[in-house]
Amino acid sequence: MDMQSLKQWLIVTDHLMTHDKTSFKDLLKSIAYTPNASFSIMTSKEQEYEARSQAVKRLAFVVLGSELDQYQAQMNDIQERLSENLRVSQSPSIRSAVFLCIRVLLLRLRPPSLIGIWPIMVTELVHVLLQMEQQLCAEGNGIEDLGCARDDAWMQLYLAACKLLETLCTLPAGYLAQFQMCHWAFVNSVSTSKTDLFLPFAGRINKLLRTKFGKLTQEELANLSPSLCGMKMLTSFEELRPFFYALATQNKALPGTHEGAGTDSSFLAGSLSYKNAVQRLEHALCVDFAEHWQL
C-alpha cells in the first residue's frame, strides 16, 4: 500500500480494535509461543519464524494507529510476548520485528509505562551492535558465519537496530531518562582521547567503517544524510557510514549544527522538540510499513 492508504488503514485498524474489545487480545494470542506439533510438521522453521515476525509487525502496526498511552494497560502482556519471541528464537527476522515494535512503543507510550521493556531493548541492541562489530572485523563480506539464515535477513536486523538507535537519539534529550543512563555506551557525547579505555559503540563502529570503506569525502559529508528514515533495505555496511559518523562526532559539533556531517544531523543530538521528533519518527515508521515502489 502507498503512504496515504497506509495512514487511512491505521485509522480503520484503530477503530476496529477500539470497538471490538476481543480483537487486541486475539492479536496477542497469535504472537504467544505455543509449541504445536502439527504446525511444526507442516512447516519449516524458517516459515514459522516468518509467521512470528509478521505477527509482531501486525502488533506494531496496530499500536502505531493508537493514541498516546491507549495500550498502557496491556503493556505487561505486550512486553511478555516480545520477550517470549526473543527467548525462543534468535531468528534475525523476529528480532528485526521486535525492534520495529519497540520503536512504535517509544512513540505511543509515555516513559513511565516503558520501564519494564528497557532491559530487553538495551540487551538486544547491545548484542546486535556487537555482532555488527564482529562482522566488520571479519574478512570479506563478514556474514559467512551467521548460520543458515539468508544474508539479507541479517543485514535487515542491523538496519533495524540502527533505526532503533536513531529513534532513541532523535527523541528530545532528557525525555527518556532510562536512555540517558546508558547513552554513554552508544554515543560519543563527550570528547574522547586516544588514552580513553572505553569508546562508545558509535565511535568503534565508525572507526571500523572508515578502515573498511575509507574516510567520507567532503562531497559525501555535504550531500549524504545521516538519517536512516528513508532506508528500507541495507545492502552494504557502507551505507551506514554517514549515520555512525554523525553519532561519533556529536561532541565536536557546534550548538545547533553538525559541521561536516550532513545538513540535518543535529536531530541526532535530541535537538528537536517532542512534537517535531515524533512527526519525524512516525514518518520513518510509515516508510517501513509502506511498499517499496509506492513511497
From TrEMBL:
InterPro entries: ARM-type_fold, DOP1, DOP1_C. Residues 7-248 form the DOP1-like C-terminal domain. GO terms for biological process: Golgi to endosome transport. Signal peptide: none annotated. One of its GO terms (cellular component) is cytosol. It holds the Pfam family DOP1_C. This is DOP1-like C-terminal domain-containing protein.
